[in-house]
């Protein structure tokens, strides 16, 4: 009994050492961390490196807050915590300071400021009665020529989700991801006449990922070994909001330079031409951008020629069907972005080991539907009919299939597909037996070459 007890203690000790080693390897926190200065985003540096104005602009921000009313998503019950930080006005003021273009003035808590100034006046009047009255007066408050308004107007949960996993004999691993999206609107308003001078809007995705591995195995009778490891990482919402706000401040500065709304602070736009050109290039790229950072384009043209290499296997009335290699050449005509008519010719080999082998020349006609014609990666399905020619009379068949296409270049697509052929009669191999028609399964890999204009 003691030996068993000692062996169990030893096994637990080894397991704890392995767990600690894995913790260090994966970079998991095991000790308390000291407080640090806040992280910078990529736009913090860009704001600090902006060309300076001739003179800073006094600007006021009364409130720039969460306007979404969105709560954190929860799988178990209600969650009354807000999805967006409530201190976005403070984040905006910090971004304005970092840009070195503005002099932000206190307006969010103006009542506190006015109250404190009143206390100062009362104290001076009480203790400095005989002093010069002019020494008792406070200097006037700065007033803003421009106000900044707007806020966080959207927080969209689960804009994109997905994952990948596999398990074999109790050993498995999986990964999952989720993308949320936050949207910021920022506008500059003239205090002279209330005119809205400029409005900009930015968005930022918030990524959450997890990686998990597990082992589950019976190693002996009534002996079960189970192990798990996992890592989850969530992008901080506060940093995402900060990055979106800083991007909006930079965009507002550049838009103001272009439209000359900053007055005497910018006397020569030529001094800022580098940042203007960079901003315009980003706008040009952004014209075709969709949610998910996708850029649709006319990768596929009006016509296409293609060639495939196929693995083919028959399902007929004989036993021991054999896999063979064949090929296919064809032509496509797109009468709409999604639909095309395909004509092809292929070599198909029917073979049952040591029984029958027959080669067919098969022309086919298909109608194909492409799901995402303006994206590099798109699934597709098709169906049609064909005629099988050999040294016997022609056989007629139907076929349907589908696959995936990835555009390697502007007019070159790599395709992987599978096709199922069904005969109209049960006589491909010359034997009629049973009710099931002769069939075939094909797997293909090939290239599409697009030509012509869309």
From TrEMBL:
| Residues of the signal peptide | 1-23
One Pfam family of this chain: CsgG
Q: Which UniProt keywords apply?
A: Cell membrane, Lipoprotein, Membrane, Palmitate, Signal
Q: Name one GO cellular component term.
A: outer membrane-bounded periplasmic space
User: Has UniProt tagged this entry with the keyword Transmembrane helix?
Assistant: no
InterPro entries (alphabetical): Curli_assmbl/transp-comp_CsgG (IPR005534), OMP/PagP_B-barrel (IPR011250)
PANTHER family from the UniProt entry: CURLI PRODUCTION ASSEMBLY/TRANSPORT COMPONENT CSGG (PTHR41164), CURLI PRODUCTION ASSEMBLY_TRANSPORT COMPONENT CSGG (PTHR41164:SF1)
Name the record gives this protein? Curli production assembly/transport component CsgG
Which organism is this protein's natural source? Chryseobacterium wanjuense
- Lineage in the entry? Bacteria, Pseudomonadati, Bacteroidota, Flavobacteriia, Flavobacteriales
């Amino acid at each position: 009994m003691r030996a068993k007890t000692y062996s169990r203690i030893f096994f637990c000790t080894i397991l704890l050492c392995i767990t600690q080693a894995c913790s260090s390897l994966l970079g998991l926190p095991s000790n308390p961390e000291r407080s640090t200065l806040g992280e910078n985003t990529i736009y913090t540096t860009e704001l600090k490196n902006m060309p300076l104005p001739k003179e800073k602009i006094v600007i006021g921000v009364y409130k720039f807050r969460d306007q979404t009313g969105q709560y954190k998503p929860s799988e178990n019950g209600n969650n009354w915590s807000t999805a967006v930080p409530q201190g976005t006005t403070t984040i905006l003021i910090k971004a304005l300071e970092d840009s070195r273009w503005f002099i932000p003035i206190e307006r969010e808590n103006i009542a506190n400021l006015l109250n404190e100034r009143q206390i100062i006046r009362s104290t001076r009047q009480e203790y400095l009665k005989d002093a010069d009255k002019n020494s008792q007066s406070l200097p006037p408050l700065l007033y803003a020529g421009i106000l900044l308004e707007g806020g966080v107007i959207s927080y969209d949960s689960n804009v994109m989700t997905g994952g990948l996993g596999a398990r074999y004999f109790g050993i498995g691993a999986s990964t999952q991801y989720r993308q949320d999206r936050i949207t910021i609107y920022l506008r500059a308003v003239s205090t002279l006449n209330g005119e809205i001078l400029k409005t900009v809007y930015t968005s930022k995705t918030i990524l959450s990922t997890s990686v998990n591995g597990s082992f589950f195995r019976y190693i002996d009778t009534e002996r079960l070994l189970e192990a798990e490891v996992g890592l989850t990482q969530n992008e901080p919402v506060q940093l995402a909001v900060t990055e979106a706000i800083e991007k909006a401040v930079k965009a507002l500065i550049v838009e103001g330079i272009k439209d000359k709304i900053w007055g005497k602070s910018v006397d020569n736009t030529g001094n800022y031409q580098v940042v203007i050109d960079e901003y315009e290039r980003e706008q040009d790229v952004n014209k075709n951008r969709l949610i998910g950072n996708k850029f649709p384009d006319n990768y596929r043209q009006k016509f296409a020629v293609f060639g495939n290499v196929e693995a083919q296997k028959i399902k007929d009335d004989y036993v021991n069907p054999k896999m063979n290699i064949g090929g296919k050449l064809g032509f496509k005509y797109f009468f709409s972005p999604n639909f095309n008519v395909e004509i092809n010719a292929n070599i198909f080999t029917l073979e049952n080991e040591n029984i029958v082998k027959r080669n067919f020349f098969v022309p086919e006609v298909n109608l194909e539907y492409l799901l995402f014609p303006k994206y590099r990666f798109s699934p597709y399905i098709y169906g049609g009919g064909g005629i099988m020619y050999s040294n016997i009379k022609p056989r007629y068949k139907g076929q349907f299939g589908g696959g995936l296409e990835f555009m390697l270049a502007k007019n070159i697509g790599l395709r992987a597909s599978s096709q199922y052929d069904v005969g109209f009669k049960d006589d491909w191999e010359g034997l009629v037996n049973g009710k099931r028609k002769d069939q075939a399964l094909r797997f293909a890999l090939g290239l599409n070459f697009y030509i012509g204009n869309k």
